[in-house]
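Below is just one:
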Amino acid sequence: MGSEMTELIIVRHGETCENKLGICQGQTEGTLSEDGKKQNKLLARDLRNFKIDRIYSSPLARAVETGNEIWKYHKDIELQTDIRLIERNMGVLQGEMFPDNFDITKPVNGMESIEFARIRMKSFLDDILPLHTNQTVLIISHGLAIKVLTAILMNMSDDNIIDMKLMKNSCYSIYYSDNNQGFKIK
């Protein structure tokens, strides 16, 4: 039997005006900043020579706009939104300034638990991975959601999510799986 390899390129959306101001967006829309739009153009150029088979994006505008910029170089494939890639709901913090010394481990009223975010992200991966054996899939999501996605791919516990660095805006990481033996970072 030949080797099967699936590659995932995980992208964080471009910088928003709210990111710049330290406002918690969570599942609210947010607006790409001018820098965010420029960063997305550079990101799309960086990714233009990758052979990408499908793009999945969070339905929030900041992610879809980032995806559309990348898609300009890959017009023969589909860009599909999936609600499971949305950012964690940050409850009463959404639309507010992040408090000083904000501690993600101490839930605020209405905040989505890491466990729930993990369930929806795992459901997304379980649905798409069988469809894309030997393919490269690009996934566009959000800072906290990407931490959860990374923990699933790297087989880490929820405790490790807290210590993980937040991916910068308009950046990406590549993960690959050989013969479905779990994922490794490239």
